[in-house]
Structures are given as structure tokens and as C-alpha cells.
Amino acid sequence: MMRTIFQRSLRANTFLHRLYMGTLMRLYKLALVAALTAPAVLSAQEVQVSPAARKDLALTIYESDLALVKDQREVKLPGPLSVLAFQGVSAQMQPESVLLRVLNSEPLKIVEQAVDFNVLSPQALLQRSIGKEVSVLTPNPATGKDTVERAKVLAVDQGLVLEIGGKIHTQVPGRIVFDALPAGLRTTPTLLITAQGAAGKDLRAELSYLTNGLSWRTNYVVDFDADAKQLDLTGWATLTNATGVDFTDAKVKLVSGDVNRVAAQAQFKAMAASRATMAAADMAEGIAQQSLGGYHLYNIDKPLSVENNRTKQIVLMSGAGITAKQEHVVRGESYFYQQQMPERPPVTQAETVITLKNDNAAGLGLPLPAGTVRVYGADDTGAPQFLGESAIEHTAVGNEARIVVGRDFDVTSEREQKSFVRGGERIVLTTWQVTLKNAKSKPVSVRVVEPIYGAWEITRESQPHDRANARMAEWTIAVPAKGQAVLEYTAKIQN
User: Fold this and answer.
1) Residue 233 Cα distances to 256, 284, 419, angstroms
2) Residues linked to residue 70 through DSSP beta bridges, in sequence order
3) How far apart are the first and last CA of the chain?
């Protein structure tokens, strides 16, 4: 009986042993196959792609502190896995917008990318030297020679702290000399792209990215002749670069219009460009204007250098003898029509406004980007004088541009509410009298603008009005020299 149990146990143990050894062999074979078939671990080699390797540079600059950079450079991969260190990129680039294309070969396989902003500076040198020794050179006033002392950098963030000769110093007695350049510091912001590709090939790579810090705006200079009812206009494109790098000999395009931004990032769509019709006023020589979807694009033919920390101006457009008129405008307030006024509103001075129609007939007919207009006019001696400045919105061809120059204290308006009657819970009738006075030796035309909210109608008036829109009534009143004119009207308003 005992012998039978022993024999059975021995056979079971032998079976388990064979099963165990068989499993080990199978695992070994699988591991061997995996080791033989696994790709070799690649060691990435870094290659410097400096601005000297640049072959082409294009900038599309938007008005809203945004630009698209397209930078073509020649690259040779040192190995199958390489780190392309693009030097001289914008310090304000948006890393998530980076696109790398190979133009003359098979595309690269991008593994990862990073932007290294650890740029060489005195502060960065000190930060990387904490816990290490540096030399402090102090000039000897008597001999003019430097005295050299070794110092240990203890702290930097809240002010420099050094240990010199066993004592703690919080001020540098001389200039600091570093033994070597600490690892990890670069001379310029650098984009690091790890990519796989065939080694030894000469590639032309185009790096595209969005960046802040590069923008443009429009400034207009106007020479206005009120008697001739004409003006000469020059539009300047003012480019500003605060990216931290120079963009040299770039092909520049300027885009005018409001680009949609999501979470402070620009969203671009492919838009077909079509050539716009040139009009009486001309684009500056070497600049072509196109319509681009909902925007306007200005293509500068000659390469342009946009240096860091500089503002540059180029002539965008010009026109002479453009028809324009000067008018005076007085404006009411919407609350004038909602209540019985306890007292008269204060006397106001009229705005001086230059109005021009942006069309061929007026001698203009070009899309005007939003910008600041500075107006000059001649005095009695013919010398130009600054009259004022105003901001204008984007003005399409066919629309009207109004330039508010300032206020004219010779032309004033006085208002008086003659009556205020409630015709029900939601209906009021109110009568206003507007007295316009002109102290000038010439007659003037005054436009009276009254904002009225609700469903309204003018039931009685001394002069006919224009219904500018659902919330605006306007009258144009001629006021004689050294005289006055009176406008009186009754408005019925249903709220």
C-alpha cells in the first residue's frame, strides 16, 4: 500500500518537473526571438540648424499681435535619429503651432519636439553655478592689476550670495569670471525637433510656426483743404518686432482684418486669394493688394528686414485730391426721451468731422485698414498745422469713413425740453428745442444726431429729418455766420 502511494507521488512529481522545465524553455525561446527581432536602440545626435543655413524666409503679419513664420533651411541628418536644433526662432513662438515639412525628399518622422528657452545670460550663468566655484576679479587702484579670489556661489534668486575665504558676501566686490560655460545654455531660443530619417541626405526643411510679438498697424496722414473740400492721404504700415530675433530679407505679407482667436491662439483656414480691382488712389509701388476671404492682404514685392526691438514704416497707399467734406456734429443722449428733465443739459461744443466716401468717384476706392488718422491743415499763412487725430474702423470700398478731428468751440448747441407727456404706461411724447450758434465768419453745416430707443416717430418738426437707422434721427441744419438756427421737434416713443 505504502509502495503504491510512493510510486504515484514520484510519477506526479516527475510530470510537474517536466511541465516546469518545458515552460522555462518556451519562455527562453520567446525571449530570444524578441531579442533577435527587436530594433536596435537609436542614439539621437544633435545637429545645429543655424540661421546661416536659411535659404528662404516668409512672414505673414497680422494686426492682432500675431505672425506666421515660414523659415526654409538646409539640413543634413547625422544619423537615423537626429535632434534638429533650429536656432534663432522667435522667443514668443507658439510651440503647438509648429509644422516641419521636407521639400526635396521623403518626409521625416517626427518623434518629439521642445522649445529651449534657456538662453545665455548673466543671471542664467549664476543660476547654473550654484554650489560651484567662480573667480572674482577685483582691480587694484594702485597697480591697475586684478586681484583674483575664488568664490562659491551660494544663492541667486533673492540676490547674489557668495562665500569668499570662509566669509559670506552679499555684494560682488569685482567682476565674476566663470571657469566654463555651464551645460544646457544656448545663445538663442532653440526649437528641438527629434526626427527619424535617412542619414547623410541634404534636406531643405520648411519650419512654419505662429508667433506673438510681431504685428503691424496702419497710420494715415491727411492734408485737408476745407475750402477746396479735398484731402491728400498717405497710408503707412507700421511694423513692430518684439520677438527677440531679427528677421532678415523676408518676403512680407500684411493681413488686415480681425482674425478669429480661440483661447489666445489663432485658428487658420485655407482661403483662396483673388486679385482686387485697383482704384483711383494707388497702392504704393511694390505693394499688391488682394482680397483674402474676409481679410485684405498686402504683398510687399521687395524683401524686407524686420529687426528685433525696432519699429519700421513703409508706405502702403497714397491718393491726392480725394473729395471730402467737413461738417459739425452735435449729439443728444438717449435718456433725454425717457423722463422729464429737471434742468437744461449743458451747452456742448460741436464735433468737427471730416467725411469721405471710399469710392472711385471720390478719388479713393481702396479698402482702408483700421488705424489712426492724423489730420493737418493750412493756416492763414499757408503753413501746415496739426488739427487732430482719430481712429477709423476697417472701411470697405463703397462705405463712408468719418474722421473726428476734435471739438469746435465756435459752434455750440443748447438744448431745452419744452414738454414731456406720458400717453400711457409705455408711450411718451416729448418736445425738444435745439439752438445752434455759430461764432465763425463763415456759415457752417451742423448735423444734429438724436439717439432714440424704442418704436419712435417724429410727429412735428421745424425741419425735415433723416431716419439714419431704427435708433437714430438726424437733421442737417445750415447755421449762418455770426448767427444761430433753431430746430424744434416732437417725438412719440413707445417702449
Assistant:
1) 18, 12, 47
2) 58, 208
3) 112
C-alpha cell at 398: 463703397
| Nearest to 108, CA basis, from 86, 89, 81, 88 | 81
Contacts 24+ apart (CB under 8 A), 379-382: none
* DSSP designation for 180: S
Torsion of CA 434, 439, 444, 449, to 10 degrees: -30
Q: State the DSSP code for 104.
A: S
Nearest-angstrom CA–CA distance, 411 and 440: 8
> Nearest to residue 225, comparing CAs of 319, 324, 317?
324
Per-residue confidence at 181, pLDDT binned at 50, 70, 90? Answer: confident
Position 22 scores a pLDDT of: 54
Selection from 162, 109, 159 nearest residue 131 by Cα: 162
Residues 360-378: pLDDT tens digits?
999 988 889 999 999 999 9
290 phi and psi angles, rounded to 5 deg:
-130, 155
pLDDT digits (tens, 9 = 90+) for 10-32: 454 554 445 445 544 554 444 44
Q: How far is CA 188 from CA 108, 159, 243, 418, in A?
A: 25, 25, 12, 72
Length of the chain (residues): 495
* Residue 10 CB partners (closer than 8 Å, separation 6+): none
Which stretch of DSSP H or E encloses residue 210? strand 202-211
